[in-house]
Amino acid sequence: MQPTSPTSPTFPSPARRTLLRGIAGAAALGAGVPLLSACGGSGSSSDPKTVTLGSNQSDAVPKKAYGDIYTAFTQQSGITVKVNTKDHNTFQEQINSYLQGTPDDVFNWFAGYRMQFFAKKGLASPIDDVWQKIAGNFPEAMRKLSKGEDGKYYFVPLTTYPWAVFYRKSVFRQHGYQVPTTWDAFVALCKQMKKDGLVPIAFGDKDAWPAMGTFDQINFRVNGYDFHVQLMAGKASWTDAKVKAVFDHWSEILPYHQDGFMGRTWQDAAQTLVAKKAGMYVLGSFVGQQFTNQADLDDLDFFAFPEINPAYGQETVEAPTDGFMVSKSPKNHDGVVKLLEFLGTPAAEEIYLKGDPSVVAASTNASTASYTPLQKKAFEMISGAKSLTQFMDRDSRPDFTSTVMQPGLQKFLQNPKGVDGLLSSIERQKKTIFASE
């Protein structure tokens, strides 16, 4: 987590999504020395009063917030949660070896394809029995996000946050701008902002991941949730005309993106929004951590990425979601069920959010009384979505996104006219990488 002022809510670091950049395919999926192991290094405990948990929450704030949940669970149940915390990136890099060895009973992980990958490999246990108790706490989109390809549940969500188009209310008031809900209105607004001397869309892609978020937004607005999921899972072709349509739309707004993006971090791009030099920014809600002055933060707002295809409207929201999974052979099954049933309650989420106000609850039943206006709006956007996506590197194989898509999207941004050859190249590499499944 990056430091913020005491008055500014902390938002998730984007490093959390670029976990495996630069790691070759085999290593990214876990080949290598299995340094990550269960508590004590000898597998999960068979003690009926203990559940072991592998945690990637090594940063101080989330580590304590999760710890508060486990303490509350122990007080309620008498079952101790023995936490095995590893560095966040190390956990991701070695997760495959860890799960094939002697893992802890429960482990922190991500919703969507990342979850489905291990479920399909038989490295996680279905938890339909848990969902019989907790299903009423979550909206349909969150329930869908927690299922494997076989239709069984494998994941209990805890926290989430949205991607959207962020802007400053005072800038919109000053110029008389209206929030665009359609693509044509969005393009028209970009043109007007440029005439008014603003950078229409703040943008920095030095770290290669922000462009993936823009692709996701346009893709599910043009082609819908189902096609987006199929494409990310390697089941749809990158040479499909539907994909070309995504890049055609992107090319239309590319002239309104901030210049010099290859040398700019997302934080630097955010500063142009803070300074009122940029009109909009397509990013996750962690952009708020750059608004260290409370008055500036109070001026921050967002709207859903505009509709492109009326058939899909604005029904899909990109909302990276963190939560829990169960390893393939937990030693204390009964204790695991009790823990996950507790983790799936609004009470557990409220405990977490007291210690970490950077995110919002995955449950629609959790109290929003302590939320800031921005958090409340984020919560409403996510809970009202028909479908939720994660983020490209969570919705697809990490080796594919880090070695193919990140450099591929940067090539497009620098040479949008070469998109046909680029998509053919992506498709060839995709076939090779996904054939290893």
UniProtKB/TrEMBL annotation:
Keywords: Transport. InterPro entries: Bact_solute-bd_prot1, SBP, TAT_signal. It holds the Pfam family SBP_bac_1. Gene3D superfamilies: Periplasmic binding protein-like II (3.40.190.10). The keyword Membrane does not apply. The keyword Cell inner membrane does not apply. Belongs to the bacterial solute-binding protein 1 family. This is Extracellular solute-binding protein. It comes from Streptomyces galbus. The lineage of its organism: Bacteria, Bacillati, Actinomycetota, Actinomycetes, Kitasatosporales.
